[in-house]
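Amino Acid Chain and Its Fold in Token Form
===========================================
What this section holds: a protein sequence and its matching fold, both as plain text.
Structure line: whole-number tokens from a learned vocabulary of local backbone shapes, matched to residues.
Purpose: to set a sequence beside its fold so the mapping can be learned.
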Amino acid sequence: MTRIKNEIHINAPKEQVWDILADLGGIKNYNSSVTDSYYLPGEKRGIGAARHCDLKPFGSVEETAIQWDEGRSYTLLLHDGKKVPPFKKATGKLAVRSNGSGTLASMTLEYDLKFGPFGKLMDLVMVRSQFQKVTATVLGGLKKYAESQQAAA
């Protein structure tokens, strides 16, 4: 299983950053790879909450919360996707904690690709570096969005 983790300091209170993250349907507000996002029927918060995301330049994913620690973190399981890497299993964890006058936000991706040795080679050659960029981009977008909301408040 491949594990990628990235962190960023955000100049906004932890509660504000958590509220942004906990709005699963609002990921399009800070993830530039998402062209549209919305809740799937059912829970909006907590274990079982799920979303659909349309991705740039094409493709989509659906994710469901399999872990939820209110105010601190959640883990989403990718369970359906089009035009994304061929995962056997993939999860993404987003977490926040107070850090001085701001927040330390982290994103951890864990995944296994299909295709045995060929999948491991794909991961080494291109998938891992792409997802390292994805975590940095998502967290950078979250920082920009949260800090702009803080400035507007």
